[in-house]
Every structure is written in structure tokens, then in C-alpha cells.
Design goal:
Largest sheet: none
Low-confidence stretches: none
Mean pLDDT: 89
Radius of gyration: 27 Å
Helix content: 40-55%
Oligomer: single chain
């Protein structure tokens, strides 16, 4: 639709005529780099060996292997891969069975 090397119309003019923002023309960076794919392979290997490790411990394992990564990147890659630590989740909404249940005395008042 927009020709970058048009002989008569500049890109700015073409975008103005089509009512398109010029920032939409810039190519986006690739989502996954080769380094990310290598890290994902390493994370998968660590997770397969130790499925109870979370992102903090996996970062430490990766640093021991020589990768300089941060926790945010590892969390993002783990989320992308669908990996999470095997740990019990908190049961904050379930009442304890040994706690007494009191009747609501204001019902119907």
C-alpha cells in the first residue's frame, strides 16, 4: 500500500493521504531471539530435572551455567512456555474444618 521508494510522494505524504500513522511502518523486533530459545531450552532442562524450582532458583542455576539473566526474563520465558513450579498454592478462601461456624443472628431483622 505504501511504497518506500516512490518517485513523487514521500512516505510522510503517503501516510497523510491514507490517514495512517508513520510509526506503524516500522518493522517490529522479533519476539524470540536465538538467545531466548537457548535459554528456554536450558530452563526446560532444569525444570524437567527439578520441577519444584521456581524462577528465583532457576535464575541461580542459569547463572551457574554462565548465563547472565535476570528474574524478570526467566519469569517471562517460563510463562511463555507454560512452566510453573510444583508447589502447593495458598488456600486462603477455604475455612478450616475445626473452626466453629456461628449463626448469623441479624438475618430477617
Amino acid at each position: 500500500m505504501i511504497e518506500r521508494d516512490h518517485p513523487q510522494l514521500s512516505i510522510r505524504k503517503q501516510c497523510e493521504l491514507l490517514d495512517v500513522n508513520r510509526n506503524r511502518l516500522a518493522s517490529r523486533a522479533p519476539k524470540r531471539t536465538a538467545e531466548d530459545l537457548e535459554l528456554m531450552r536450558q530452563i526446560d532442562a532444569i525444570h524437567t530435572e527439578h520441577p519444584f524450582l521456581g524462577s528465583r532458583k532457576i535464575v541461580l542455576e542459569l547463572r551457574d551455567l554462565g548465563h547472565g539473566v535476570g528474574r524478570g526474563r526467566v519469569r517471562r520465558l517460563m510463562k511463555l512456555m507454560g512452566i510453573e513450579a510444583m508447589a502447593p498454592k495458598p488456600y486462603t478462601s477455604e475455612p478450616s474444618p475445626e473452626n466453629p461456624v456461628y449463626p448469623y443472628l441479624l438475618r430477617g431483622v
